[in-house]
Amino acid sequence: MSSVFDRTASAITGLLLVMLIALLLLGHGMPVYLVNLAGQVMCFVLLAMAVDLMWGSAGILSLGHGLFFAIGGYIAAMHLLRTAFAATHVLPDFIQFMGNGGFPGWWALFDSSLFTALAVLVVPALAAFVFGYVSFRSRVNGVYFSIITQALTYTAMLLMFRNDTGFGGNNGMTGFHAIAGLPAGGGDAGVLLASLATAAVLVCLIGGRTLLASRFGRLLAAIRDDEPRLRFLGYNTLWLKLVAWCLSASVAGVAGALYVPQVGIINPSLLDPALSLEVAVWVAVGGRGGLCGAVLGATLINLLRSWMAASAPLLWPFVLSLLVLLVVLALPNGLLDMRNRSRGWMHSLLPAVGRPRP
């Protein structure tokens, strides 16, 4: 199985490099829709890899990564609204609606691009640390941990629907003017964001596989296989899980920060537990462990959903359900298991040659 992972990782890395070079060289001549679609899919791939880092490697299923995804998105939106105000001197609609005279004072921190980038990495990790420390220290695991993460995300969604939180409420935050000096919604900005998202996926794939091949990755696999035995051997699994959990949250935050400028809006729908649940489906369909399956599953499912949204939108929930059933019944390790399973099926279908007759 490891050789299959290695060959798949090499192929995926090569394809991502080709895609990145194509975006940089030919992206300006491509339709804006295709560039934007590629960028959004790469953001979803990054989010799926964040989930797979915990689920595939440590055996901890999170159904609440939409929270970290949204945190990164809201931080990016605050920076973009501050830069839009500096250029136009027009307050966002949601601030005018609330009757405030301007931005909250602490928003001035997000005038700095460097501070915003650090916040995208650190704030989701801090939120994950607080929640993870309480949960892992109490040895909450399995389905109970998954349910708690889903409930946490749902609670955050209900909170962000309130207008008095100062983050746009139900209408969300929009009105972005420029992205890195480029007009928001234009082709140049789309190429930049899609290239950054693709580069982020490349870095996370190479760095993540290197991490999983290290001693730390082997300890995560031991947690997945038999955590009580690892604790008996003297390892403090609390901090091992916390490090992986916070790293996973930071990756999800980066995905959200790159996603929001491409769609031009952020609202509490990103905190809908259905999104976090669907991310788990992407990982399951692609195959858990090694991060390769997360790339495959998120890419194929989101491209399929994009195509069906135009041709047969009402059929998409049924198609997604069939994919889940296929994984459960035939491919326990998703598409990564296709090669081994296909060999077994072909062997069973081919007539037995040279076998002695009874």
Short description:
With 358 residues, the protein is mainly α.
Task: Name the descriptors.
13 helices; 2% strand; two-stranded antiparallel sheet; 358 residues; mainly alpha; single chain
Can you walk through the features of this model?
- There is one protein chain.
- A hairpin with a 2-residue loop joins strand 2 and strand 3.
- The strands form two sheets. This protein has a two-stranded antiparallel ribbon. A two-stranded antiparallel ribbon has the order 2-3.
- Mean pLDDT is 89; it is low at 352-358.
- It has one domain.
- It is mostly helical and 358 residues long.
- The protein has 13 helices and four strands.
- The two termini are 35 Å apart.
- Helix 10 (273-286) packs across helix 11.
Shape field: globular
Q: Could you name the ranges where pLDDT drops below 50 across 5 or more consecutive residues?
A: 352-358
The percent range for helix content is over 70%
Give the count of structural domains.
1
* C-alpha termini separation: 35 Å
Order of helices and strands: HHHHHHEEEHHHEHHHH
Given helix and strand content, the structural type is mainly alpha
